[in-house]
Amino acid sequence: MRIVFCGTPEFAVPALQALLAAPDITVAAVVTQPDRPAGRDQQWTAPPVKRVALEAGVHVYQPEKINSESAHDFFRRQAPDAVVIIAYGKIIPASLLSIPPLGWINLHASLLPKYRGAAPIQWAIIRGETRTGLTTMKIDAGLDTGPILLQKEIMIGPDETAAELAARMAREGAPLVLETLRKLAAGEIVPVEQDHEQATFAPMLKKEHGRIDWSQPAPQVYNHMRGVQPWPGAFSRFRGKLCHLWGRPAQLERPVVAPPGTLLPRGERLWVACGEATALELETLHLEGRARVSAAEFLRGARLRPGEAFES
Questions:
Q1: Across 289-310, average pLDDT
Q2: Angle of helix 13-21 relative to helix 162-185, nearest 10 degrees?
Q3: Is 57 helix (H, G, I), strand (E, B) or coil?
């Protein structure tokens, strides 16, 4: 089978590596986003998928616009049996979808139709899901609306962050992509239309999604913290400065009686009052312009006033 692979971030790498190693599959070319400036020094950086492709000696194509005549010419010249697309980062125009006979096969990090969109892993954790999954589907003109090919359920660990879950799902998604391609080519899969009435959405995260709502109970605040790791990170404001935080629900002997957001020292430990008389125990704090510190180090330097709170 001859394929073209479209993908950009680290999440797409395990599937690409599996396809490159498969004896019955030829990766004719890899399509990925252009190199971008990254890091504090804004050095031009190649996407992870590009680095893997170049190491394997595979041709890499990086169009600024996928909906261009040159991109159409590229896919027509490659004449793939299928295009595998994983976290590429651009909407594919309908005019490209009909080129490969087996279609465009996408690996999506949810059990569709739940969590359509750019950040399914993050939103599943933020919303307190205990299970998620992987779906291979045929791309159509909509946003994650195409027919389902195969699915695999995955449990979410109670302390697993979005970054940790993404790495695990990427590894488990690779064999699912191979199985999908082989069964599709053999005529062993009947695509199943999604139940669009059951759809939920997972929009791209923005910086403001990291802001903590202390009126939520501590378990929900913890889910939020796990879901926004590593970016944008969970944060609040302390004495007018941005403060990134990490912690977990406190083990309480009695309900907390304090307004949400109130800082509650407990010796060298630090709790924050949350909704429904719960509390979150902070482990680390990273105040804007300073180094990340433990709760004990923060308490020694901050000299909290009674009733002091994170700003809402």
A1: 96
A2: 30
A3: coil
Residue 41: pLDDT over 90: no
What pLDDT is recorded for position 38?
83
| Sequence ranges of the domains in the chain | 2-198, 207-302
CATH superfamily entry for domain 207-302: Formyl transferase, C-terminal domain (3.10.25.10)
Q: Could you tell me if 133 and 111 are in contact, meaning their C-beta atoms sit under 8 angstroms apart?
A: yes
Residue type, 201: F
> Would the pTM of this model clear 0.85, i.e. be above it?
yes
What H or E segment, with its residue span, contains residue 251? none
pLDDT of residue 42: 83
pLDDT value at 226 more than 90: yes
Amino acid at 17: Q
Taking Cα atoms as reference points, which of 113, 97, 172 lies closest to residue 147? 113
Instruction: Report how far Cα 23 is from the mean position of its chain's Cα atoms.
Output: 30
| Residue 64 confidence (pLDDT) above 90 | yes
Extract the tokens encoding 269. 């430990």
**Which CATH number fits the domain 2-198, given the four candidates 3.30.450.70, 3.40.50.410, 3.40.50.170, 3.40.50.2300?**
3.40.50.170
b/e map of 147-160 (b: 16 or more CB within 10 Å)?
Answer: bbbbbbebebeeeb
DSSP codes, 207-228: GGGGB--TTSBHHHHHHHHHHT
User: Is a pLDDT exceeding 90 seen at residue 40?
Assistant: no
Q: What is the pLDDT of residue 57?
A: 98
pLDDT at 39: 77
Longest dimension (CA), the chain: 70
- Decide whether 2-198 matches 207-302 in CATH topology: no
Beta-bridge partners for 60: 30
